[in-house]
Design a protein that fits this description.
255 residues, alpha/beta, Rossmann fold, five-stranded parallel β-sheet, 12 helices, 5 strands, 47% helix
Length: 255
């Protein structure tokens, strides 16, 4: 059986937008395949990082990694860094995965930025860090490491990907989790997957859980206001052009 795509299902983010949770949900299906955990070459069995970490390994490496033992199964690559690939990279992705379904989950830009900063704090400072994050060199280093502008520029990323994948699936993080069961049924249907052909016990557990949650490190008000200013344009553009409504950031600012 000749495979049309190396990756049949691509999720391009956003980072801290429940991509790990959705990957776990889709992985309950008997119709999907996750590549073997090759960390640190890949990020667990979820993120192949072909176009950022592993492009030098070549297309044959990518194909070998993702090809399922059962060719009828749908292969998955959920790498949030793909969101801000350039035109040449997205064109190559289209050539390798012409019939792939692409998913982009959008989360409130401020809430996403806060969660990303906290993730980097966890990696660098450890889970027991208790001192509030304040404006300064350390905070600025987290902003740089988290690549907040690249991950947060939703419309730039969406327009670039839609030039090659006009049927790209866009999800609102908040709407998705307001009605998890209905949202999961819709995404299964959009991907052509039979939700009945899933491990129902695992799926039920995932409906009431999270796969990855950043530690709730405290942040000084000045940090929140800086991040609000940094992400304001992204919120305004996405809400205006896509008709989405983001509320998480408002709750963060309200304290």
């Amino acid at each position: 059986m000749t495979r049309e795509n190396i990756a049949d299902i691509l999720c391009i983010g956003c980072q801290k937008g429940s991509t790990s949770w959705l990957h776990s949900v889709l992985n309950t299906s008997t119709m999907t395949h996750s590549f073997p955990n090759s960390d640190p070459v890949t990020s667990t069995d979820k993120e192949a990082h072909f176009w950022d970490w592993n492009h030098k390994r070549g297309v044959d490496w990518y194909r070998s990694l993702l090809t399922p033992p059962d060719p009828a199964k749908r292969s998955m690559d959920f790498t949030p860094e793909y969101a801000f690939l350039n035109e040449v990279q997205i064109a190559e992705c289209k050539a390798l995965n012409p019939g792939a379904r692409v998913i982009y989950i959008l989360r409130d830009p401020l809430a996403r930025a806060v969660s990303a900063i906290r993730m980097h704090m966890l990696w660098r400072l450890g889970k027991d860090h208790a001192e509030p994050l304040r404006m300064g060199d350390e905070f600025r280093s987290f902003v740089t490491a988290a690549r907040l502008t690249q991950h947060g520029d939703y419309l730039r990323n969406l327009r670039a990907w839609r030039r090659h994948y006009p049927d790209l699936i866009v999800l609102n993080y908040e709407d998705f989790h307001t009605d998890r069961e209905g949202s999961v049924r819709r995404i299964f249907a959009d991907l052509g997957l039979d939700i009945a052909a899933s491990d129902q016990e695992r799926l039920k557990k995932l409906m009431g859980s999270r796969v990855w949650e950043s530690a709730k490190f405290p942040m000084d008000r000045s940090v929140l206001m800086f991040l609000q200013g940094l992400t304001w344009r992204f919120r305004q553009e996405a809400e205006a052009e896509l008709g989405m409504r983001f509320a998480e950031g408002e709750r963060l600012l309200a304290g």
